[in-house]
Amino acid sequence: MKAVVACGALALDVRRIARRRGWELKVIPVPALLHNHPERIDTAVTELMEGHDVVALAYGDCGTYGALDRLGFPRLEGDHCYDVFARAEVQLALEEEPGTYFLTDFLARTFEHTVWRELGLDRHPELCEDYFRHYTRVLWLAQRATPATRVAAERAAQRIGRPLVVREVGDAGLERQLEALLDRLG
Amino acid sequence: MTDEEILQLLYDETLVGNAPAVRDGVNEGLEQGLAPERMLYDGLIPSLEEVGARFERGDFFVPEMLIAARAMQGALDILRPLLAETGMAEVGTFLMGTVKGDVHDIGKNLCNIMLEGAGFHVIDLGVNVPPEKFIEQIEEHNPDIVGFSAFLTTTMPMFKANINALEKAGMREKVIVMVGGAPVTQEYADAVGADGYSADASAAVKKAKELLELRREKVPA
Q1: Does the predicted TM-score (pTM) go above 0.95?
Q2: Residues A74 and A85 reside in one and the same domain
Q3: Using the beta-carbon criterion (under 8 Å), do A98 and B103 form an inter-chain contact?
Q4: Check: complex ipTM more than 0.95
Q5: Measured between beta carbons, which residues in chain A are less than 8 angstroms from residue B154?
Q6: Which of chain A's residues have a Cβ under 8 Å away from the Cβ of B109?
Q7: What angle do CA A72, A75, A81 make, to 5 degrees?
Q8: What's the rounded mean pLDDT across residues A53-67?
Q9: Helices B62-85 & B3-15, crossing angle to 10 degrees?
Q10: Number of domains in chain A
Q11: Three-state secondary-structure class, residue B111
């Protein structure tokens, strides 16, 4: 079975889309926490490929600055996971306001451990302004704006102390990109 | 405490980001007549360099670096006026900013602290700085070096835009241009026509001094 190595921040969405579209695709997740150590992503991806018929990477560049591309597999377009859901919206939002902090459903739901704790803010809350002082808003690019995820997004925005803006973008952007990747591979 | 013990304390407590202990150590050093330069060069800066080295090795992460930088900043706040009083010569003036469209400044701020520690007068323009602001501020402050910082691949092209603006304003030859930021490489710096690039804050200080020396050899003051 063809396999896609996916960032943990996207793996559930990739699986859901594959199921919806009837694609026979094995999704191999890579821990999303590597987002905070992008220099380790290419090695982790390479290790997980072993023994699988990997055809593509469900990753943006994700701070690897080309290291993922050098593995020689097609990947999703975009710099980060929020780009792959809604590239045009991200670009527009950054043009409107460079100080935009993005959330996806995954980032909203896991904010406490993928962001807050990883940035050391549980131990050093005094660093909050060092990280976020230039952000003026939190933009949640919602895949499925359930009440629970909305609460999580609101809590994340509150943590940073910035207003929350919600745009429901769904997962069609990711679906289109996956479809294009699989089409290219025949 | 002896002078050596105070210097060791400054080194150790900066390393773990214990800002109150570093401030206390600096004050105690001053009370017993320890020279501000010694505290800076034999305690604080080596410690921050070690923090950088540990970060490179993957032993330290961003939070550890930030708390160490805050501790160093606290010490510098006390020492800055004293260093000026003791007549410590300024190495040069460094105008720094994150380019237009980019609000990331953690790396830039670390560079600022290291540059200041090394004797540069640092003027920080902050983040999301448009080319015209750089030009206006270069005109006003006449810095030796201007530093452009970018964290995003989408904002790196502003390096070239800034350099073009410098050329258009007839300032390119007057100021050394350094660039840096996570996605930046030496090749990219060369491609946009920067004079210097460095991968981290310690290297930025070395590079800045080296470029300044070269410039002064070519154009004696």
Answers
A1: no
A2: no
A3: yes
A4: no
A5: 79, 94
A6: 130
A7: 140
A8: 92
A9: 140
A10: 2
A11: helix
